[in-house]
User: Which sequence fits this backbone?
């Protein structure tokens, strides 16, 4: 199946669930459902959004890793979907800059509010 077709069909909750289970990773399907619920999305919405977030935010290294996975995988659409979902789950699990500390030392970076001070 082509990736574009797969992405369009992910809007159907039943198709999305079947597709996630067809990847052969029940844990991944459960993680997607859990992440979707955390953001008020269905598993289908989360999976489709994961692909969009990867497209918008992945680094050159992330794209290179995807290309390498595609070379090794037998089903390009499934390989791509899995990689993009894994990337999105990792991004969503990472602490936000506010939680982790921005690294600017608390002064004048202009990128965010350091609170009262």
Assistant:
């Amino acid at each position: 199946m082509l990736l574009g077709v797969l992405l369009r069909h992910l809007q159907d909750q039943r198709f999305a669930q079947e597709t996630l289970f067809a990847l052969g990773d029940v844990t991944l399907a459960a993680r997607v459902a859990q992440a979707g619920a955390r953001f008020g999305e269905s598993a289908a919405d989360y999976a489709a959004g994961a692909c969009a977030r990867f497209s918008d935010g992945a680094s050159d290294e992330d794209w290179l890793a995807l290309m390498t996975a595609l070379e090794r995988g037998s089903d390009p659409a499934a390989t791509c979907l899995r990689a993009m979902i894994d990337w999105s789950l990792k991004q969503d699990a990472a602490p936000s800059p506010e939680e982790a500390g921005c690294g600017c030392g608390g002064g004048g970076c202009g990128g965010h509010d350091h609170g009262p001070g």
